[in-house]
Structure formats: structure tokens, C-alpha cells
Amino acid sequence: MHWQIPSYTFPTLIASSISFAIAIIVSRRRFVAQMWPFALLAFTVAFWTLGYGWELVSVDLATKVIFAKTQYLGIATPPVAWVAYALYYTGQERFVTKRSFLYALIIPFITIILVWTNEWHHLIWTKTEIVMYHNYTMLQTYYGPWFWVHTAYSYVLMAAGTLILLQALVLSSSLYQNQIIALILSAIAPWVTNAFHILGYRPFPYLDLTPFGFVISTVALAWGALRYRLFDTIPIARHILMENLSEGVIFLDAKRRVMDMNATAGHLLQLRPQDQIGQSAEIAILGLLAAPPAADPDQHLRWEQSLTHADKKLILDVQLSPLSDRNRYLGHLLLLRDITERHQYEDLLRSQRNLFAGLVEVARATSAQIDLDQTLQSTLDVALHLTTAEQGSIFLLDQYQMVTHSILAREKATLIEQQNLVGRVMRQGLAGWIVAHNQLALIKDTHTDERWLHLPNAPYDARSVLALPIFGTSGILGILMLLHSQVDHFGQEHAELMEAATAQISYAIGNAHVYQTQQQLNHELSRAKDAAEAASQTKSQFLANMSHELRTPLTAIIGYADVMREDLIDSNHQVYLEDLDRIRSAGSHLLGLINDVLDLSKIEAGKMPVYWEQTRVSILLNDVVTTIRPLIDRNKNSLLIDQTYHNLMFWTDLSKLRRVLINLLGNAAKFTEHGTISLSLFLDETDDPACLQIRVCDTGIGMTADQVANLFQNFSQADASTTRKYGGTGLGLAISRNLCKLMGGDIEVSSELGHGSTFTVKLPWIEQPLSDQREVGFDAPPYLL
Questions:
Q1: β-pairing, 649-652 with 613-616?
Q2: Degrees (nearest 5) of the Cα angle 750, 606, 764?
């Protein structure tokens, strides 16, 4: 295959390249509806010019014919794309449907088929041959009948698209006018050169100047794109703008005749626009809108007008503005905007604002008082104010729907008259109807409504009534009834306001009920407290008297038992010693019980003082172990003491802590046989504040979880069998815990049945001396086993 490169091949390649570039640029603007036919137009033109360029550089007849046929893929479709683009550009895209577009492509499609099958029928070219021109081979074609059909069809479409743009050119603004001029130049140039070529007017024989026309087209398109933003701005046709406006638009000339009117204006005024064009607007339009008189034609007027169409109220915002051109009066522009919905929203907002203000006033009035009677009166007063009612009543009901409180409109009635009146209204009147139906009642005229009970000798003639149930958590809590002497005084707005307010009223009445109940409970509690204090004082006095009466003889008994024991030992009467020991033990036990009860009474009364003093761990342990050793040895137990902190000095109430430890070690010795009891003391500085922990562990009988839960209750032991076997009063642990709490600490216990128990005393670590403290035992030696 041989090739030739004539100089006039380059314009075709330039035109093809620019067309491809424009097609790519335009195709990226897919969001603009008019761009797809323009992109199709640019692609097909680029294909046409590129095919012609390949035809020029080929040498032999067969290759040239192939490229000539290929060109028709770009020759046949541009006219259809041109018309589609013109319709889109001028806002008439409704004519470009899939069906119409496919119909328009029928002839181009047939043409392409006939081109590629031309050797069978010669309807496109009757003959093709090679001729020499300036030492280059050129394709000479002789046109068949279908060629002329396609050519005529194409030129008709091109002319139609151009006429559409020319029509838009007259009506468009300057920006769009320049765009249209650029488009028309880009369309006319190639088709004029093509027409000259087809008709034989060729300045250069055998050379088709159509691609050179496309060079002019690309220059025109580039000028339109760069100078007038051809691919960025979209013109909007007048009819689309007018017919899609949500506002009504009417143009009036200087004589107030209707020159134009959109469909929205016709719909708002219930007029047919086509019947009003050319007619005077004074009566049919301006008269209907009640246009105010204008002293000056240049005056801008604006007003609101209500219209009624088929029982539907319409509110219009009307503007009448003068139109002028270079100080020359042309007429008026009448704009109509439907503001009915806005007025409805404003009315609703105003109603809701009034409702909110009313609810705020109800809330303020009902929450200002906490007494029930005052709350009821405040509720009634604010309801009268909000509804401008003249009189009102309010009833409170219990769960049996019996009236418990009431404020009646008939204020001067006696108590008996009020009770009779309430009973009759609840049985036969509107209040009973409210209770039965659980809904509000709005009576326009009491003389025509059977629900209203007319009472004899009534000092007030109520003609309109608004009655509402006040709902509580378990049903109707009360009834609010408002009265007025004027017929139809109360409206739906009053009913909605008070119905919304009943929730706040119910809340306020509930609070008042709670307050009243609380006051009664406080009064009862105060009486119970006084009684308890009196009983406590009596108990304390009794315990003080009893302690004196019991301690004196018990001390004498113990003392005489000791004297007798010494005498018996001296006289060698050993047989009575065991009985004296039992007497002395029983007396000591009873004396200890009395002391425990008195101490517990002091603790509960808050009269147990705490005396802080500084001591050493070894002194405390030595004293406690010396006291508790006999009890430990009695059940053959061993005692282990951790002496890690034996030199630690600390502040505490020594007597109370000694009593606690003796009690814990005594219990451990009592409930452990042939076992081990351990005593440890250490400083836990991980807590905040630091904590001194004293732990007593045993391997005794242990306890269950239920027994541990009740361990520190007064007069409580593990169970009855424990009391029978081991004895005790059940006060030791209770007193020990209370003593620890007095010193700012506590006692914790862990136990497992059959495996022993662990009691942990936790006391705050005190480094600095407190008030009323003394120092003892600095020189005592550490305790050693």
C-alpha cells in the first residue's frame, strides 16, 4: 500500500483534531442536557474530516473508496445532531424524544447501508475513478439518485436547525445572541463549501473544500467558547421561564391591556390567559384584585388581596411595577404570589405562641403555691384570665369519684348548700357527664343543651360553658368548669389551650397532694420522734437507776464472795470453794452484761466520748494478751502474734481499742478448741488515707453467709444452738463495731463454716496529735512471747 501527503491534507487533520477536542470537552459536561447532541455533532464531524484526510493520503482506488465509505459514518448523522442541539439550546427539548430521534435517523441509517453496498446497486455513486491533480491521485465520484435524496434531507435539517437558532437570536440577550452567531457560523461554513463542491463550483478541481469549511467552524466554535462561554452558559426560552414560574406574571401595556399572561396567573385568578390577551385589565384583573389608585404611573404598588374560589380562600401578594425603556413608559408588570399557606402558618404560629404563653402562665401560677387549696384557687384564677371567663368552679375527685375538694362559682353558699350543690351537679349535671364520658364539653348555649343543669334561684345565668376533665395517673383527678353569660363565648382555641393546660394543672395538683401528704407525714414523724425521745429518755433514766440498783448489790456479792473464799482457804474448807467460784462468776457475768447494756445505750445516744492518746503496738498487745491468755489456754489453743510492727507508735483511744481486741480474741478463743489463733497488726499505706489494720484469725467453727449478715446486730448471735453451747449476750460484736466507728474505722469479717473466721479492724492512721490527747508508754519494752 502506497501513501501520498498533499499539502491540503493538513487542514483536514487540524479540523478533525479540534473537533475531537471539542467533543471531549463537551462530553464532560454531562450535567448540561443540551450537550449530548452537540458532543455527537462534534464526534461525527471529527470522524468525517479524519476520514477525508485518510482518503487524500491514500493512492489506489480501492483504499480511497474504503475511506470515502468510512466518511459517511460522520456525514450522515451531523444534520440530525444539529437539529437536536438547536432544539435543546432554545429550550424546546420536548420535541427531542427517543422516538423522534430514531425516526430522524432512518434516512442516515439507510444511507450508510447503501454506501457500504454501493457495488450492488450504485444508488450512491454510479461510478468511481482515479484522476491526477498536481501529481496526486484524487477520487472522482459520480452521484447516484439516493445521494441526492440524502443530500436534500441533510440540507433541510441543517436549514431547520439554523432557522430555530435565528428565531432565538432575535429574542435573546446580547450574550446569547453572540453564542448563536458563533453556532450559525460554525454550521454554515462547512455546508456552504460542501454545497459548492456538490454543485460543481470548485476553485480547485477534484478537491472537496468541506474540511476547510470545518476549519472555519472550529475557529467560530473556539471564538464562541472563549469569548462568550458557549459551553458554560445555557439560554432559557421565554415560554419555559414564564410557564414554570411559581408566581403569576401579567404584562400590561401603557393602556392597561393584557399583553402576556402565564398559566400560573390564570390559575390564581381563575381566568383563561388566551381570553385575556389584548383585553383591558381594569375590570377583569385589576378590579378583581382591588388595585389601589396610583397618583403616578411610575409608582410601585404592593398589597394583599383575598379571593374566594369554590369555597376556597386564597390570599395573594400583589405587586404592580412600572416598565420603562430608556425613560420611555411601556406599561406595567403585575406579579401575583400565593401566600395563603404562609398566612396559615402565621396564624398557626400565632395560635401556638398564644398557647405557649398560656401554658407558661398556667405553669407559673400553679407552681407558685404548694398548698392544695391555694393551688386550686390559683389554677381557677389563671383559667378565668386566659379564657376571659366570668366565673368558674373546680372539683377534685378521689379514686371512687367522690368530691374531696371544691371551689364553686356560688361563693356565698353555706357549707351544707355547697355539699348539696356538688352532689346534685355530680349526679345530674355537666360534671357527672364529664366523669361518665371522660372528655371535655364545649356548650355554646346552655338553654339548648340538655347536659346543663339549670338550678333554681341561681344568682348567675351561665349561657356558654367550657368544662374539662383533669386526668391523673389513675383516671380523672378533677373537673374544671368555666362559665360566661354571653352565648358562644368559648371557642375551639380556648378548648385547645385549656386542654393542653390540664396536664400542668394535674402536675401541680399532684405536687400539692404530695406536699400535703408530706406535711402530714412530717407531723406524724415529729410526734413519733417526740415520743421516741421521751421513751429514750425514760429508758436512759431507767438504765441509770437500774445500773445503780444492780451494780451496788452485785459488787457487794462479788466482794463478799472473794472474802469468803479467802476465809475458806485459810480454814482449809476446800469443799465450798467451787460453789463460791460459781457465785462470783455469775455475778461478774451479770455485771459485765449490765455494763454492756449501759455502753450500748451511751453509744446510741451519742454520749460516748473518745479520748485520743499515743501508744506503742507492743504495749497494746502485751496488755491484751495478758488479759486474754487464760481464755486461750482454757480450750487448749495456741496464740501466734506477728511482731513486725511492735515498735510502731500510733494515736488511738487505747481503752476502746483494747476492749475491741479483747472481745475479738475472746470470741476466737470461745469458738476454737485445740486450734490456732493469730493476731497481726500492719500499716496499709496504699489506702488514702493510710489505714492501720489489726487482724484476728482463728481455726474455729466458722459461720455461714447468713450468719455473717446478722453478726453485728444487737443481741444477735449465729443461732440458738450457739447461744446454748457457748453462751453470750450478742452485744460484744455490736459494741465493738460501734466503738471502731467512733474512732473513724470499722470491722470487716470473712468466714467459712468449719474452717474458722477472720475479723479485721480498720482504723485511720493518725500521725499528728489531736485535741484532748495524752502520751503514755514511751519507755515500755516490746512484748515478747
A1: antiparallel
A2: 45
Nearest to 395 by CA among 423, 353, 365: 423
The count of other CB atoms within 10 Å of the CB of residue 83 is 25
Signed CA dihedral, 129, 131, 136, 139: sign only: negative
Residue 362 per-residue DSSP state:
H
Instruction: List Cα–Cα distances, 407 to 73, 128, 421, 722, 744, in angstroms.
Output: 98, 116, 12, 66, 57
| DSSP letter string, 689-733 | S-EEEEEEEE-S----HHHHHTTTSTT--S-HHHHHHH---S-HH
> Where do we find the cell 493512492?
59
- Paired with 615 in beta bridges are 650
**pLDDT, tens digit, 9 for 90 and up, residues 64-85:** 888 888 888 877 888 888 788 7
Q: Identify whether the C-beta of residue 365 lies closer than 8 Å to the C-beta of residue 381.
A: yes
Sheet order of strands, 441-443 included: 403-407, 391-397, 475-484, 464-472, 441-443
The residue written with cell numbers 458554560 in the block is 232
Taking only the tens place, the pLDDT of each residue in 607-642 is 678 888 888 888 888 888 888 888 888 888 888 888
pLDDT tens across 523-551, in order? 888 888 888 777 766 766 666 566 666 66
pTM score = 0.38
Query: ∠ CA(272), CA(275), CA(278), 5° rounding?
Result: 130
Residue 557, Cβ neighbours under 10 Å: how many? Answer: 17
Q: What is the DSSP string of 269-280?
A: HT--HHHHTTSB
Q: Which of 187, 202, 336 is nearest to 261 (CA)?
A: 336
